[in-house]
Amino acid sequence: MVAALRSGLVVAVPTDTVWGLAVLPGVEGAVERLFAVKERPRSVELPVLVADVGQAEALAATLPTELVSRWWPGALTVVVPRANGVRYDLGAGPDAATIGLRCPAHDATRALLAEVGPLAVTSANIHGQPATTTRAQVERAFADRVGAIAGGDEPDGTESTVVDCTAEPPRLLRQGAIPFDAL
User: Fold this and answer.
1) From the CA atom positions of the chain, what is the Rg in Å?
2) Cys-Cys crosslink for 92: which of 3, 18, 35, 96, Cβ 3.0 to 4.6 Å?
């Protein structure tokens, strides 16, 4: 898994919500491969999974500390201003002003993130199709298109809630596992 990521290959990883397709965003060509495997338009930016708040702080100019301390690890993705010098091209180019971050409540995936660093990720499905929730679905759809498929507990099947924390008040971008009114 680690070798595949470091060589720029797309891998499949389970999270607490759904299976994801992931790459190391700093490896040349990796993000482009992820967009191609997913058949996702570049106009739909990729979020980034982090192992913990420390990794998130390195990528974000500011974090909504109350939200992340309550809901991370978990099914909350926050869109925040990027830290200076974070030049990942996640779809909108390396000079994009924001970045979506999530710390999954999945021990095996967080251990991988702690070892290799933050991963650009998207749900493991062809763009516009339902997300995959089992390893068997991932294998059928992507076995010949990814460098590795991680092990670990199966996801619960409900995507993360996505909140734009650059707006005041914060704005719901996608309803998911956490009800917006609970935030």
Assistant:
1) 15
2) 96
Check: CB of residue 52 under 8 Å from CB of residue 155.
no
Question: Are the beta carbons of 144 and 5 closer than 8 angstroms?
Answer: no
Q: Which of 162, 157, 22, 169 is nearest to 98 (CA)?
A: 162
User: How many residues are given for the chain?
Assistant: 183
Take residue 41 and report the two structure tokens written for it.
């338009």
Enumerate residues 6+ apart whose C-beta is below 8 A from 151.
14, 108
Q: Which residue has the tokens 């990796």?
A: 30
> Would you tell me how many other CB atoms lie within 10 Å of the CB of residue 36?
11
- The three-point CA angle 28-2-102 to 5° equals 80
Please list, in sequence order, all residues whose beta carbon lies within 8 angstroms of the beta carbon of residue 147, skipping any fewer than 6 positions away. 4, 5, 7, 9, 10, 11
Q: Give pLDDT tens digits along the chain (183 positions).
A: 999 999 999 999 999 999 999 999 999 999 999 999 999 999 889 999 999 999 999 999 999 999 999 999 999 999 999 999 999 999 988 899 999 999 999 999 999 999 999 999 999 999 989 888 999 999 999 999 999 999 888 998 899 999 999 999 999 999 999 999 999
**H-type alpha helices, the chain:** 2-6, 30-38, 53-59, 65-71, 107-116, 135-142
